[in-house]
Write a structure and sequence with these properties.
This protein has 383 residues and is mainly alpha-helical. It has one domain (11-370). It has helices at residues 11-14, 26-34, 39-65, 69-76, 81-105, 111-127, 132-145, 150-181, 187-212, 214-234, 243-286, 294-307, 319-330, 335-351, 353-366.
Length: 383
């Protein structure tokens, strides 16, 4: 469920109204999303995205590190088959862990279905610039074919999206705290640590208030509505976005699910992030990078996860890589090894997910026994 930054949903769909019969075919759902924007806009977005990736990988990363791609290739050629198999196993465990998140936010979903859903929708998001919305369209299509209602899917997307945001805000705070404890925190990072911690506290407090008080949730929604409408007017876009109602709808639908399943959601989200960090650490250690401490690698990883939320390129590829490489080199890592390690990590979490996601689509198409009428996955409202 690639709901890292879910867009506003249609009001009828969110309430399971007249759109409830839609999104039964994931391919059709993706096609509708792809045709939602004009061809010119799609071409411009793809061109900008490709240009950003090209500049980052061809110019920025070599400039930051001073390493050539010939040096990087020499480092990667040192990996043995056993080492590649080990990295693949850790990456696969990460997929299983995130399937645990999906089964937690969408009651009734099987773990195997969660893996298929994760890989299939991630492949779509990784290919299309600004592809999060397309991935969400595919999520609705796949889950609807398995019998889940639109309100249940919307709730799962929203809750998993909130937990992803909280985690990506929290990881840099934890990393900076660890750097401070180990005496590796540099003065320039103190401001970032304070700002990040304050932002995380605000996000947690806001979520808590929304869940605990109807009136305060409405107040927060109206405040967010004002900010959103102002920003949309500045960019000359339609400012008729129902943010207030969306906040209240989220509160009404999510209280039951979050109150009963937040430990499970949190556990699997943390396990997923831990396995991704272990993968990043192994990519560096197996290539011979031993001068960097585990805490320093974790700090670079944490800021990279935060940078991956920038939607200019698919899944933030290139932007996150540049940030991680720059941080590792700044900490004193070997430029060629650090670049190779980060690119190897991206090869697993980004490139490998595309062909594996294609397999996920094939599995979805062939597993007719998973198809059900829309009766499963009812949302856990606190009526």
């Amino acid at each position: 469920m690639t709901a890292k930054n879910p867009p506003p949903e249609d009001a009828n769909a969110a309430h399971g109204g007249s759109h409830d019969h839609a999104e039964t075919d994931p391919v059709e759902a993706v096609e509708r999303e792809l045709h939602a924007k004009s061809p010119v806009r799609r071409i411009v977005e793809a061109t900008v995205s490709l240009a950003v990736v090209t500049v980052l990988f061809s110019l920025v990363i070599p400039k930051v590190t001073g390493a050539t791609y010939r040096d990087v290739a020499q480092q990667l050629n040192q990996l043995s088959g056993v080492e590649i198999a080990l990295l693949t196993a850790v990456w696969a465990l990460g997929l299983i862990a995130y399937a645990g998140v999906l089964t937690a936010v969408l009651p009734g979903l099987r773990r195997t279905q969660g893996v298929v859903l994760n890989t299939a929708t991630s492949a779509v998001s990784n290919v299309v610039p600004f592809g999060g919305a397309v991935g969400i369209g595919a999520t609705y299509g796949i889950c609807r074919s398995w019998g889940f209602t639109v309100p249940a899917i919307t709730l799962g997307i929203a809750v998993s999206g909130v937990w992803n945001v909280l985690l990506k805000l929290g990881l840099p705070v934890v990393a900076l705290g660890l750097l401070a404890v180990t005496g590796e925190l540099r003065p320039g990072l103190v401001v970032a640590a304070v700002f990040g911690f304050a932002l995380l506290l605000v996000a947690i407090a806001t979520l808590t208030i929304i869940l605990r008080s109807e009136s305060l949730a409405g107040t927060i929604g109206r405040a967010m509505q004002s900010v959103t409408s102002f920003a949309l007017r500045i960019t000359r876009q339609d400012d008729r976005v129902g943010v207030t109602q969306a906040v209240l709808d989220f509160r009404h639908r999510s209280r039951g699910l979050i109150s009963t399943r937040w430990p499970r959601i949190t556990f699997w989200m943390l396990m997923y992030s831990l396995l991704q960090f272990v993968l990043q650490l192994l990519c560096l250690r197996l290539l011979g990078e031993s001068s960097l401490s585990t805490v320093e690698v974790f700090a670079a990883f944490a800021f990279g996860r935060l940078l991956s939320t920038i939607p200019v390129t698919p899944s933030g590829v290139g932007i996150a890589d540049t940030g991680v490489v720059a941080a590792l080199v700044a900490f004193g890592g070997n430029p060629a090894i650090c670049t190779a390690g980060v690119l190897l990590f991206t090869g697993f979490v980004y490139l490998l997910e595309i062909p594996v996601g294609a397999i996920g689509w094939v599995v979805w198409a062939r597993m007719s026994s998973w198809r059900q009428p829309t009766t499963a996955g009812l949302s856990l409202d606190d009526s």
